[in-house]
């Protein structure tokens, strides 16, 4: 009884279309290395039912399978990113799935796809082979995984005019030995990219910290850990450059975001957490960093989309809310397919404890195909606004528009108050000789468009 198109919620689909969602990864995550794709095709009432040990020990009836996922991607207008099962699967199973999805009519698997409702092949650009195989994806060492990956990728073929961008399971956060071991065993014939996973935990894996009940000190710890991803990326990229001086293999950060203790009263396996202005700031930090490394970062996927971890959307029955993180993605969508510009900032250290100080500001800048410059900034300071004079070389500003997400660090959207945090217009930007001037409020994410 919730408005939907072929079972996909219309409100969720429209919200994701609005932020120009470019790519969606499925079926995981740790679930990917236990997922057998043939369980999720054919008549829904005949599909295999299993217990999903990765997500709360609940029944997995496989009603949502390959056809449903591809349908969702088509409704949103995004690229599918398929993660195949290397952990508990077989090479034949992975090869068959690629053929089932992308082969032209004629093969038995293509005909099976047709009988299941989709005669035309799908386009699948991104193919991840295994997920976190150093951990829940098989507890493998890098030598074994690299050998298995090379075998698997060999049999995941290109059919017709579909060309796969193959992604190997890269390191967990600061595991530089994994990157060196993997890159020394791969070349551009094997992989287009390797993945990196990095989560921000204010505490530790035993006690991650609350999504809602946190102090200023915990806020700055969270921000400091979010900023650390730049150092981690750069150290991995240095190793990648040594092994791959031509930069044929790209970095794919296909899981990132904040991870807190689950909301009280919810299934611990569902990893449901609320989303505040703190998460909006972390999203802005990450997206600015990824933008500024777009020469080597091919893709970056916030870990989950709806109701899990740092989600962009939360639902409760027929209700839906857009989180503060969603609104940051909405403002940053203008960087998509634009050209990165060099940008620098004068910053100062802010915080409440000497060992948790962070720069007060971050930024990234691009120019889109229409010549519009997009400036995105975060002010990480919880108390102080900062006057900014931005010198813009090679452009004389004529038109300026701006929008902002701001609020006290605990502010959030709820089903009772869904618009507490939202994108608002910002009219504080003025033209000055050689550029623009404005004051960025405390605890805020700002987008300025200049033409």
Write a concise synopsis of the structure shown.
With 451 residues, the chain is α/β, with parallel strands linked by helices. Helix content is 25%, strand content 24%. The relative contact order is 0.10.
Key phrases:
451 residues; alpha/beta; seven-stranded parallel sheet; six-stranded antiparallel sheet; 25% helix; 24% strand
Give Rg in angstroms: 22 Å
How many helices? The count is: 9
Q: Low-confidence runs (pLDDT<50, min 5 residues)?
A: none
Percentage beta strand: 15-25%
User: Gap between N and C termini, in Å?
Assistant: 46 Å
The strands making up the biggest β-sheet line up spatially as 3-6-7-8-9-10-11
Could you characterize what this model shows?
There is one protein chain. With 451 residues, the chain is an alpha/beta fold. It has helices at residues 10-18, 66-76, 91-102, 108-115, 142-155, 176-183, 216-243, 277-292, 324-332; strands at 4-5, 8-9, 23-26, 50-52, 58-60, 79-84, 126-129, 165-168, 193-200, 250-258, 297-302, 313-316, 319-322, 339-340, 349-350, 358-359, 361-367, 373-379, 386-391, 400-406, 424-425, 430-432, 435-440, 444-450. 25% of the residues lie in helices and 24% in strands. The strands form seven sheets. A seven-stranded parallel β-sheet has the order 3-6-7-8-9-10-11. Strands 14-17-18-24-20-21 form a six-stranded antiparallel β-sheet, covered by helices on one side. Helix 6 (176-183) links the parallel strand 8 and strand 9. Helix 5 (142-155) crosses helix 6. It is globular, with a radius of gyration of 22 Å. The mean pLDDT is 97.
